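Render this sequence as a predicted structure.
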Amino acid sequence: MKNIVVGLLMSYDYEKLKLSIPPVYNKADKIFIALDHEQRTWKGTHFDIDPAFFDWLKTFDTENKIEIYKDNFYVPELTTIQNDTRERYLLSQKMGIGNWLVQVDADEIFIDFDKYVKTLRSYDSFLDHPEKTPVQIAGFLINIYKYLDNGILYVNEPTKVMLTTNYPNYKRARNTKERVIYTNNILLHECLSRTEEDLKFKLDNWGHSHQINNEFLSKWKKADETNYRTLKNLFYLDPTIWKGLDYFPSKNIEEIRELVEQKDDLKVSASFLKNKNFGQWFKFLKVFNRSKINFESYFN
């Protein structure tokens, strides 16, 4: 036990796994890919998978770490977000309580997974009795908004993301509503960076499909490198969550990683993390005391 186990969801955007799997492969002890046994989305829409993808997966998996977990992940009586949460829970049971359960979506790409593993290892004590000290380990996403001819528009402020838990009592998607430990780990998120046709399909079959705001798609369609600075309030649910955009003059993932490391406004400060984690510690003080973790060793 106490392994680093990564779980991914396989759906209509399965090709994006070719970008999300390689960064986590070397440091993961095991990788599970959840796939509905009838290839249905959370809304029940069928999707096809090119057999060539499985050929790629077999060739890539040189250490036999990857297992495809097929199950019934669509229940028609449930909403899309309920099916989302249910699939993540079933996947986590397969991954095994007693391990670090890292769930990465197909469109999320770790900048430095080696660093993230070191972060998790510093909290291994939470794996001794996970049911008594449930926690979530969070990172931050740089949300890629749109691919253009010569570069990428992205949201100019990172957003938090729940990545890992020791005890998967999920309440909504990956969120267990337990204590959060925020860490300085960054992922690229290709949430909207796809063709208009693919984006419409995603929004229609996504766990939050019923909450999409009416102005989102029109803003996304007109955004380009000449007008992005004038566009505000761009999030697909509550628009004000994404206040503005910036631009990477490249579409190469490796070059983007380097650009991210150079931009101070995309870095998460130590003081911000300390304040957030102190707030979470204080909020869950009773849990903290029961776990008997030394206060000084945690913050130093």
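Summary. Strands lie at 4-10, 30-36, 66-71, 100-103, 108-110, 135-147, 152-155, 159-165, 179-189, 245-248. The chain is about 30% helix and 20% strand.
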